[in-house]
Design brief:
The chain is α/β, with parallel strands linked by helices. Helices cover 49% and strands 8% of the residues. The strands form three sheets. It has a five-stranded parallel sheet with strand order 4-5-6-9-10, covered by helices on one side. Strands 1-2-3 form a three-stranded parallel sheet. The structure holds zinc ion.
């Protein structure tokens, strides 16, 4: 029997019934990802296994570095097969790391390869996968159809003109792809060079001069409107922690002028400016009925030498331990007091924050929208069996699992869609064990409908985005 067999991660009879009967057939609504829209717009065909699987994958680079592999084979200039071989040599050392599960789940689902990857079969796996990639079945659009992705949200800079989203909209009938408004750069008044380059881009994007803070807000609103016109209904912020002490508009105007003149904002000025903008973004989202995502707590680029050499998002980010809860609650409270609290999804990267975030969500549920404040799926370092179970435990114990909008890939790779299958198996594994030990009633109808809802239906209802047609209607 292959390692990834039909009942992988399904330890009990009930978990197997729930997974195969209710979870496996559900379509995918991947409402947070970093997939490049351009790859879907041009229906990219990957030339080899390296391109689709290793290019840009900082999870694998971290494992390879930890295995003593030289940087040349990670972010460097080694030929694609040599990089793949270095990865194959690393895989046996990754036992009990989620990469071991993902690697074999992905090889199986995309290429039907059931062998355990290592140095000895690397060439055979490489050749076999490349033959599959050369066919018509694994272009980006075909991958979305193969995995029953009915809707997908990308992450986009407000300056992006979203032309590729327009192309996808007219060319693809089977699924929908929506942009997500991610304005992290707008807060960077503590980093004048980055901030000013970005404001210049914002000027170009909106074909308008930005000479004051009021102009800046107008330009941001215009971009938000542009995203809305193209179907966008989500925003996303990646922050070390929430900002909830807004300065006055007049102070923001002074700070804006100071930073535009090339001087960095002080820590207090940054706090006040970032808080005022986050309130403004909350107001934009609430007015338009959008959903706001908050990814909180990552410490980015902590290895200065590596950051300078390889740039951001290359595997040198880590779990921060900033005091999140008070600031998160203060931010939600600020939005609530200003009648500007949109639907919100909270993601923590520090596992110690699981219960604090799950509980914080409960203070701002409003009785009009079910599950309005969501404790989001296990993120980044926590996106593995242990982390998913811990997220589900904290959510179940403090809120309503039955209203949870489920999993996202949060991925840069088109090979990550089996993460939904992985999550569904873990969910059904957990529920099945609870039934067998008498913690949950053995009521298949009750549990089965919750499983279906968490896998797909809750996200569909909560996000209110139009989906691609179901396969039988295409
Ligand atoms: Zn993300």
């Amino acid at each position: 029997m292959d390692f990834i067999h039909e009942d992988f991660l399904l330890p009990t009879e009930t978990s197997r019934r729930l997974y195969h009967g209710y979870a496996a057939g559900e379509p995918i609504f991947d409402y947070h990802s970093h997939l490049p829209a351009g790859d879907i717009a041009k229906n990219r065909q990957f030339q080899n296994l390296f391109e689709i699987w290793l290019e840009g994958d900082h999870y694998k680079w971290r494992a390879m570095r930890a295995n003593g592999v030289a940087e040349r084979f990670c972010t460097g200039d080694a030929p694609p097969y040599e990089k793949f071989l270095a990865w194959a040599r690393t895989v046996p050392f990754a036992l009990r790391n989620p990469l071991y599960h993902w690697t074999h789940l992905e090889l199986k689902r995309y290429f039907g390869i059931g062998e355990l990857l290592d140095e000895s079969n690397a060439k055979r796996v490489w050749d076999g996968a490349n033959v599959c990639l050369q066919g018509d079945g694994l272009t980006t659009r075909e991958i979305l159809k193969k995995f029953q992705v009915r809707a997908l949200c990308t992450s986009d800079d407000p300056c992006d003109d979203l032309a590729e989203h327009r192309t996808i909209r007219t060319a693809c009938a089977g699924f929908r792809v929506y942009p997500t408004f991610r304005p992290d750069n707008a807060l960077l008044v503590n980093m004048p060079k980055q901030f000013n380059e970005w404001v210049n881009r914002l000027e170009q994007a909106g074909s308008r001069k930005i000479s004051s803070f009021a102009d800046f807000l107008d330009a941001l609103k215009q971009r938000h409107d542009h995203f809305h016109a193209l179907g966008g209904r989500l925003s996303d912020h990646g922050l070390p922690h929430c900002y909830a002490m807004p300065c006055a508009d007049s102070a923001a105007n002074r700070i804006f002028a100071k930073v535009r003149a090339g001087r960095a904002a002080s820590q207090d000025e940054h706090e006040g400016f970032a808080s005022l903008l986050m309130l403004f973004f909350g107001q934009l989202d609430a007015a338009r009925g959008w959903t706001k995502q908050l990814h909180l707590g990552a410490l980015r680029g902590v290895n200065a030498r590596a950051l300078a050499k390889f740039g951001p998002n290359t595997g040198f980010d880590t779990i921060g331990d900033a005091n999140q809860t008070a600031r998160l609650c203060a931010f939600l409270d600020l939005l609530d007091r200003e009648h500007a609290l949109p639907r919100i999804i909270l993601y923590n990267v520090n596992p110690a924050d699981n219960y604090a975030f799950a509980a914080a969500a409960g203070n701002f549920q409003d009785g009009a929208v079910a599950g309005k404040i969501q404790f989001g799926s296990a993120w980044w370092f926590l996106d593995q069996k242990d982390g998913i179970e811990a997220q589900l435990e904290a959510l179940s114990n403090t809120g309503l699992l039955g209203r949870f909008i489920g999993m996202v890939t949060d991925s840069r790779s088109f090979m990550s869609f089996p993460r939904h299958e992985y999550f569904r198996r873990v969910l059904c594994g957990l529920l099945g064990c609870d039934v067998e030990s008498g913690i949950l009633p053995n009521d298949e109808k009750l549990l089965g409908s919750m499983v279906r809802n968490v896998c797909f239906e809750n996200a569909r209802q909560y996000l209110g985005l139009e989906l691609g047609p179901s396969p039988e209607k295409q």
